[in-house]
Amino acid sequence: MKLIVHLLHDDQPTGARIAKIDQWSGRALCVPRNALDEVQSRKELDGPCLYFLVTQTGVGSAPRVYVGEADGFRSRIKTHVATKDWWTSLVVFYSGDGSLTKSGIQYLESRCVTMLRDAGWCALENGNAPGLPTVPDEDVGGLEYFLKQVAILMPVLGYNIFAEAPASESGSDLAQDPAPAAAQHFDTVVCPARDDGFDSAFLGQRAWWAIRIAPHNLPKIRYVAMYRVAPSLRSRTTARWTGSSHIPERSRASTSSF
């Protein structure tokens, strides 16, 4: 699987950007609140969209999230600007081929709200729990696949909203025990790369330098996502993780634990 993130206008990784996954019709537009002109310039957002309003005060803090659906997002976001002053970024998902429908985005909204409440990590701003709409049985599989891609893209874009609450935040008696980290749901590791390593190793050999990963987390890893660091912040790509517990001694000093 290949994931590409295009940085728009300012070449900043926290600025406006579009993410897509190879062979998937969905698109994600991620925009900080101070760059909403990017939203108004995109006519494709006049169709059915699933969106998230997000703010996070710091590393390790629970994100504050609102999930919504709109058939005409460019108009809807104006209302949220006027009535909700707490959010700092938005991520809006839409279909590049127009395959999403009104009932489809209502299905996705309902499923996302349920998933976020079950995870218990986010401060969810939705006042109600929208019920699942009636959709044709043959559409459910495609919508669940779309939802899966949403769950993959959100943490890559910087918003790991579907994760479970850390033990220290949830009030568990096991807060001092490192074991609860194994229970967190994740399947992607994100690593920085410079141009030479990105081109020759990651793209050329579909390989990367050894990464130290705790043995109990190895079965969870499905993707390794790379982003280019200075001087070229222009793309991010993922490859499927094949799994390996071997870490060469020469690499251990520069690798990170998960």
Could you characterize the architecture of this molecule?
- The structure is a single chain.
- With 258 residues, the protein is an alpha+beta fold.
- It has two domains: 3-156, no CATH class; 187-254, no CATH class.
- Helices cover 26% and strands 23% of the residues.
- The chain contains six helices and ten strands; from the N terminus they run βββαββαβαβααβαββ.
- It has helices at residues 37-40, 73-83, 102-119, 137-156, 167-170, 195-203; strands at 3-7, 17-21, 26-32, 48-55, 64-71, 89-95, 123-124, 188-193, 223-228, 236-240.
- The strands form two sheets. Strands 1-2-3-6-4-5-7 form a seven-stranded mixed β-sheet, with helices on one face.
- Helix 6 (195-203) links the parallel strand 8 and strand 9.
- Helix 3 (102-119) packs across helix 4.
Features:
2 domains, about 260 residues, about 25% helix, seven-stranded mixed sheet, 10 strands, alpha+beta, three-stranded mixed sheet
Secondary structure layout plus pairing:
Layout lengths: L2 E5 L9 E5 L4 E7 L4 H4 L7 E8 L8 E8 L1 H11 L5 E7 L6 H18 L3 E2 L12 H20 L10 H4 L17 E6 L1 H9 L19 E6 L7 E5 L18
Parallel strand pairs: 5-7, 8-9
Antiparallel strand pairs: 1-2, 2-3, 3-6, 4-5, 4-6, 9-10
Helix pairs in contact: 3-4
Short structural summary:
The protein has helices spanning 37-40, 73-83, 102-119, 137-156, 167-170, 195-203, and strands spanning 3-7, 17-21, 26-32, 48-55, 64-71, 89-95, 123-124, 188-193, 223-228, 236-240.
SS elements, strand count: 10
Overall SS class: alpha+beta
In what range is the share of β-strand residues? 15-25%
Main sheet: strand order: 1-2-3-6-4-5-7
- How do the helices and strands follow one another from N- to C-terminus? EEEHEEHEHEHHEHEE
H/I helix tally: 6
Query: C-alpha Rg, in Å?
Result: 19 Å
Q: How many discrete structural domains? A: 2
Main sheet attributes: strand count, strand direction, barrel closure? 7 strands, mixed
Low-confidence stretches: 169-183, 231-236, 239-258
User: For the residues shown, what is the average pLDDT?
Assistant: 77
Gap between N and C termini: 22 Å
